[in-house]
Each structure stands twice: as C-alpha cells, then as structure tokens.
Amino acid sequence: MAAGVAVLALALSACGEKKESVTSSVGAQSMTLMLDWFPNADHVGIYQAIANGDFEKAGLDVHIQVPSDPALPLKQLEAGKTDVAISYEPEVMLARNKGEPLVSVAAIVQVPLTSIVSVGSKHIRTAAQLRGKRVGDAGLAYQHAYLSTILSHAHVPAGSVKEINVGSNLVPAMLSGRVGATLGAYWNYEAIKLQRMHKHPNVIRMDQVGIPTYDELVVVARKSTVVDHPDELRRFVQALGRGYAAVRSDPQAAVDNLVKANPGLDPKFELASVRATLPTFFSSDASKPWGWMSADQWNAFGQWMLDQHLISNPNAVADASTNELLAGQGL
C-alpha cells in the first residue's frame, strides 16, 4: 500500500457546459486534494486528468496527498490542512453530526462498493445463508448497523451470526477460514482479487439486501470554501469530471497513467477493477452531469442513519451535498 504524500502538479479544464472562464491569467492557484486511501482504480480519473493536463488549464496547481489512514482525510479537511478530500457518504454524515461544516460537492462512485464477500467454497450466496456464520468487518459502527439491518431484512436472528473485527485484513480473514464472509470488502477490489486467485467469490451488495443506496466515494469540501471560493471549487470539480470522462473513452490509457504515477500497482488488476467500476463513475440518468448526487438518496440514507442511532442531529442530513458546482448547474 502506498503511504506518505505524493505531490503532483495536475491539470484539468472545466466541463464546457458552464459559461465561465476556466483559465488563470496570472499563474495557477494552489490546491491540495487528499485521497481517501492509497491510490487505486477508484482514483483513475484523477490521474488521467493529471496526464491530460486539465487542472492546469483550469488555472489550478493541485497537490495530491495520500493518507496513512482512511479516517484521516476528513480530519485534515476539518483542520484546514487540505482544501478538498475524498471520503465516503456515511463518514460525511458522521462528521456533520459532530458539527463539522463539511459538504459533499461531487460523487465519484455513485453506488455502494461495500459488500458481503465470501469465497465460493463457503456457499454464501444470500443474506439468509449467513445464519450460523462468522462475519468479519473493520469494526466501524455503521458496518455493524449494515449487518443488523441485513439480517433483519433476511429474517435471520442476529444472535445466530458472530461478528468479528478483522480490521483491514479482509481477504486474509476469508482465506484463513477465520470468518466465513466479510462485510466491508468491495466488489470492485477484494472480490476481484479473490477472483484472480481462483477463489470464485460470492458477492452480496449492500443496496440489494435492505441498505438504502448511497454514494460510496465523494469529494468533500468545507462549507466556507463552497461559500467563499465557489469558482475555484467549480473549476476543480468540473475538471475532475473531464478526467473521468476520459477514462470512459480509453480505460487502458487511463490505467497506464494511474500505474505510471503509482508504480507499485498491478496493471492487470487495476484494469480489471477500472472496467468493473466504470459504470458507477457516472449517473444512471444520462441527462445529469458527472458527479451528480440525488438529494432524495442522501436524505433516505441519512434517515436510515438516524433510525440506526448512528447520528442524532437531523441537520447532519440537511444540505449535506450540493450539485451547484457541477457542469451546467448553479448560477
């Protein structure tokens, strides 16, 4: 896994639907972007945008930061140590519940990647087949709530399933037999890894077993930045959208650029992951711009978090996301 900080000069140009200047007349404006975790297929559009030089065309000098822990990006954002961060819809709600003025400004992956994954030999193809099994997760409160909801939806007694915190060791826990399945593995990452190991994984997706759908990966900014520097964010977000559009046009070239920037990655694995993930980078409604977030979906997922007592403040849900900075949106 990559760790530390990689500083890169990026370049992206805003999507043409917005009638505004996207170039800088007096040098590029510096901006920092912290990833949610180590560089991988989910970030392919960022690195494609770097290769295309589009951020620079948008008048931005973007520096990428790689966290040592996926809990770090929103903390760094809250502290003003990064300008924008990539995180997850549940984490945005949790931060806002604590009073942190954060807002999601674009969705990168527009469906849940989190899944219940098991090796084929365990024969766990439905939630009902979790009865009597050990299920590993990363110990997050909302993962526990996912499992409780899923078991209830499948009419499986919660006491018949043993939940085990395996941290980030999701694949080793499955391969060793420590757990029969994991909740927290991604269908576009761990499941593909198991497939390439000929373990014939079974995948149960969150939004198919009782969990309201949500945006797995989002771009987050401070509310003050949205209010005080909307043009800067707009140029960044729309330029990022061009990067992901370029991935759709040529996934192989995009993966080449991702791996070139991060030599430790496996090109064949990343290409398989990108191809699996590609449709989720874009709204199912072709009339919507890249990054679109459904307010109804955010409200429904937020209500589920309230119902599960993961959050207690309704204001954590209200206006947690905005599409105002996307191409063709806003004033």
Task: Write up what this structure looks like.
- This protein is of the alpha/beta class.
- The protein contains twelve helices and ten strands.
- It has helices at 44-52, 54-57, 72-78, 89-97, 141-153, 170-175, 190-196, 223-228, 230-249, 251-261, 267-277, 295-307, and strands spanning 29-34, 60-65, 84-87, 102-109, 114-118, 134-137, 162-165, 181-186, 202-205, 217-222.
- Helix 1 packs across helix 10 (251-261) and helix 9 (230-249) crosses helix 10.
- The N and C termini lie far apart (41 Å).
- The number of distinct structural domains comes to 2
In spatial order, strands of the major sheet run 2-1-3-10-4
Structural class: alpha/beta
Low-confidence stretches: 1-26
* DSSP summary, beta strand count: 10
Features:
single chain, 331 residues, alpha/beta, D-Maltodextrin-Binding Protein, domain 2, 2 domains, five-stranded mixed sheet, 10 strands, disordered N terminus
Summarize the structure.
The chain is an alpha/beta fold and 331 residues long. It has helices at 44-52, 54-57, 72-78, 89-97, 141-153, 170-175, 190-196, 223-228, 230-249, 251-261, 267-277, 295-307; strands at residues 29-34, 60-65, 84-87, 102-109, 114-118, 134-137, 162-165, 181-186, 202-205, 217-222.
Write the layout of secondary structure elements.
Layout: E1 29-34, H1 44-52, H2 54-57, E2 60-65, H3 72-78, E3 84-87, H4 89-97, E4 102-109, E5 114-118, E6 134-137, H5 141-153, E7 162-165, H6 170-175, E8 181-186, H7 190-196, E9 202-205, E10 217-222, H8 223-228, H9 230-249, H10 251-261, H11 267-277, H12 295-307
Parallel strand pairs: 1-2, 1-3, 6-7, 6-8
Antiparallel strand pairs: 3-10, 4-10, 5-8, 5-9
Helix pairs in contact: 1-9, 1-10, 9-10, 10-11
